[in-house]
Design goal:
Blueprint lengths: L1 E7 L5 H9 L7 H6 L6 E7 L2 E7 L7 H8 L4 E7 L6 H12 L4 E7 L7 H12 L7 E4 L11 H12 L12 E3 L2 E5 L3 E8 L3 E3 L3 E5 L5 E11 L2 E2 L2 E3 L2 E8 L11 E3 L5 E11 L9 E6 L2 E11 L2 E12 L4 E6 L4 E10 L10 H13 L3 H12 L1 E3 H6 L13 E3 L1 H21 L8 H7 L5 H9 L5 E4 L2 E4 L8 H16 L7 H6 L4 H9 L4 E4 L2 E3 L3 H10 L7 H8 L3 H13 L3 E3 L5 E3 L4
Length: 598
């Protein structure tokens, strides 16, 4: 599939042209059709020369430029529309400036209303202007879609579109997913559906993705269903328009500009350094709007000098080195500059002259080769999947820290320190638990994979171990708080000579032994809980079987209770445990017999 965004001034015929090419109505809202003007993003598709083309139709009016930018952000190519009788107009310029700022390099120029006047002047002017942008030299086609006549030039336009997409590099369908959401809606019986342009990677039904919001919040979600161009799909690869049905997500929880990500493969950042082009960073306003993908968020710009700047967002976005974004000045209603992300985890600037020195570093980074950029990625987060570097075409890679994860030494040392702090803090907060779970530790350390937690434990100089899915301090062992240990010892002494006289719940409570304390004692091997409120010696099952084996077989519950010198409250759950453990067998008449070993 090829996804193409329209671009051009209001009322130059973008929607009319898409409608003529596809036979579909791109304007989704009744208000748009009533006013004859696109307000929000529209979508239509068709087959051209055996290939599927999906068009993202954007509004041309200045008041809706934010909607326009959400449509062109993730799209690799454009259909630039200029009316022959009006020529290049202010919104044509703003749309093309946006495409230039985002680094779009492929386009076809359609000169509409060519039946009203000679289109040659509009063609020449538009081609000259486009040649000065990243779009370069584009093919131009004169078309006309009169309201009461047959359209002309559409076949030539279709051929031009086919030639244009043949020059677009094939997408990387193995890349991590970052789907910028441009629509979210609910379908009765299905739940929340989000749509977007999948620029790289692939999405499949039952995949786990991370839903991130501009406020920095994120959570894992499950792909319940998948459509592309209204066809049910099991898996869709880039480039494609997709509709993703999310399990357990409310429509109001999702907004345009949120993103679906491959978990653990993206850095969420609110402060990053960029290279600025199209303007001098010192001349830009401090308060701007940053547009990337379908997202638009308030940004504060700090010039660093030499075409570099630091940007601080109002929330967090999923960014990586090389991302292209644009900065729009909302006060002046214009695109102020383009920005290329150079560092998503920049150092603090505290000393005098630090900004100038940082600008020099960024100037070197902006011209770095692939190897240097890859190493910069490693420095940014300190954690990189080796396949990411290998896909960049690099040769020898650093030795993996674990599996296919590469972690630089400084970052690994920092993570070990954070591991110690987190485990110690968990012990202070939850003194009865042996330690935090592996998953809780992964989230606390903001690691993309559980294997990294295990690798940190293995390289911690024997300070930690993994036991029953938890990270435990070896030095701490199974030690219980002194007060709890004293109460447990009282119970153990009582059970020493009468192993089945379990204390009542009231007695346990008086000693300060609730469910958490008893669970901790059981983990430490000091007691055994036959039920949540009945505790016995750890060897109680073995003692019970030896005692019951001396009875005439089979035996009743009453006979077992007397032999064990206990109450029915203890005898019944104890016998049920022995049945489940296949140490005794319950017969049809509710009597039992001890199962001989072997």
């Amino acid at each position: 599939m090829h996804v193409i965004a329209t671009a051009g001034h209001v009322d130059h015929g973008k929607s009319t042209l898409v409608r003529a090419l596809t036979g579909m109505e791109p304007d989704r809202w009744a208000e748009e059709r009533r006013r004859g003007m696109t307000i929000d993003l529209g979508f239509a598709w068709t087959d051209i020369n055996g290939e599927t083309f999906a068009f993202v139709d954007v509004p041309g009016h200045e008041r809706f430029v934010t909607n326009m930018l959400a449509g062109v952000g993730p799209v690799p190519a454009a259909l630039v529309v200029v009316a022959a009788d009006e020529g290049w107009m202010p919104q044509t310029q703003e749309h093309v400036s946006a495409l230039h700022a985002l680094g779009v390099r492929h386009a076809v120029l359609a000169i509409t209303r060519s039946d009203l006047t000679d289109p040659s002047a509009a063609v020449a002017d538009a081609k000259e202007r486009l040649a000065r942008t990243t779009l370069g030299r584009v093919e131009a086609v004169a078309v006309a879609v009169p309201p009461d006549g047959a359209p002309t030039g559409l076949d030539k336009l279709r051929d031009a579109l086919s030639r244009m997409v043949s020059e677009i590099p094939a997408p990387d369908t193995t890349a991590p997913v970052r789907l910028w959401i441009d629509r979210a809606f609910s379908i009765r019986g299905s739940g929340t559906v989000v749509t977007g342009t999948l620029a790289a990677g692939a999405i499949g039904v039952h995949d786990t993705l991370m839903l991130t919001s501009s406020d920095g919040s994120s959570r894992d979600v499950i792909v319940r269903g998948l459509q592309s161009l209204k066809r049910e799909e099991h898996r869709v690869g880039a480039v494609a328009r997709v509709a993703v049905n999310l399990r357990g997500v409310e429509k109001d929880d999702v907004r345009r500009g949120d993103a679906l990500l491959t978990p653990g493969r993206w850095a969420l950042t609110e402060v990053f350094d960029v290279a600025i082009s199209g303007a001098n960073s010192d001349e830009l306003s401090e308060q701007l709007t940053l547009h990337i993908g379908a997202a638009a968020t308030r940004a504060r710009l700090r010039p660093l000098g030499s075409g570099a700047a630091r940007i601080r967002l109002a929330g967090k976005l999923a960014l990586r080195v090389g991302d292209a974004a644009l900065l729009r000045d909302p006060a002046r209603h214009r695109i102020a500059a383009s920005a290329r992300v150079l560092d998503v985890s920049p150092p603090q600037l505290e000393k005098r002259g630090a900004a100038v020195a940082r600008a020099q570093e960024l100037a070197e980074l902006s011209t770095a080769d692939e190897d240097e950029v890859a190493q910069a990625q490693l420095r940014q987060r300190g954690i990189v999947r080796s396949t990411d570097l290998r896909n960049a075409g690099l040769g020898a890679l650093p030795k993996p820290f674990t599996g296919d994860w590469i972690v630089d030494d400084q970052r690994a040392a920092q993570l070990r320190g954070k591991l110690s702090e987190f485990v110690a803090g968990h012990a202070r907060t939850f003194p009865l638990e042996p330690g935090p779970t592996i998953e809780a530790t992964r989230r606390a350390l903001d690691l993309p994979d559980r294997t990294l937690v295990l690798a940190l434990v293995e390289t911690s100089d024997d300070a930690f171990a993994v036991r029953d899915g938890r990270i435990v301090e070896r030095a701490r062992g199974d030690a219980l708080p002194a007060q709890v240990a004293h109460a447990i010892e009282q119970i153990r002494l009582r059970l020493e000579n009468a192993p089945f006289t379990a204390p009542e719940t009231a007695e346990l409570s008086a000693l300060g032994l609730g469910p958490r304390e008893l669970a901790a004692a059981e983990r430490a091997g000091l007691l055994w809980r036959v039920s949540p409120s009945i505790v016995l010696r750890p060897d109680a099952p073995d003692v019970a079987v030896r005692t019951l084996a001396q009875l005439p077989q089979p035996f009743t519950v009453s006979q077992a209770r007397e032999a064990l010198d206990t109450t029915r409250r203890v005898a019944v759950p104890l016998l049920e445990f022995l049945d489940r453990s296949r140490l005794t067998r319950r017969l049809a008449d509710d009597t039992r017999t001890v199962i001989e070993p072997g």
